[in-house]
Amino acid sequence: MGREVSESCVESLLIEMVSSYCNRFYADKPELAARRIEAIGYQVGHQLSERYTMERPRFIDHLEAIKFICKDFWSEIFKKQIDNLKTNHRGTFVLQDNRFRWLSRMSIESSPETTGSSQDGEDKAAQAMSMHLYFPCGIIRGALSNLGIPCAVSADISHLPACSFVIRIKA
């Protein structure tokens, strides 16, 4: 039987990690905080990919590896497959999760009294939420790197709790 970690523990760890890097370690350097959080995700994704592909033959092409990420890898981490996969057949893939678990309990609503204008509060809350996406982007990039696919990964949260991960494979 494989080792498992409580989902609530992982979510709490992610929240605390983002809070620590953004508010304590690099409070005045959000770009550096984002890079550090993504680097931790990269290491986690690299190791998880190693664990989940131990018994598998090497993937033949990029599409096969991306399908592995969408089905098997995502199922291991989030207990469901990616809802939609799109590609332009030129090295760009979009993975759509209609209810991304790590964002499903978060809210970007903020009170105007504590943040100034309502729009400023929503912008700050959305920016804080986007910091939580560097970790899963790093996980995806680390997993694909371990599979021999160098790439860049970004996320879009324009329709919460849905989240899109854009993978651009480097030539």
UniProtKB/TrEMBL annotation:
GO terms for cellular component: cis-Golgi network; trans-Golgi network; TRAPP complex. One of its GO terms (biological process) is endoplasmic reticulum to Golgi vesicle-mediated transport. Belongs to the TRAPP small subunits family. BET3 subfamily. This is Uncharacterized protein. It comes from Punica granatum. The lineage of its organism: Eukaryota, Viridiplantae, Streptophyta, Embryophyta, Tracheophyta.
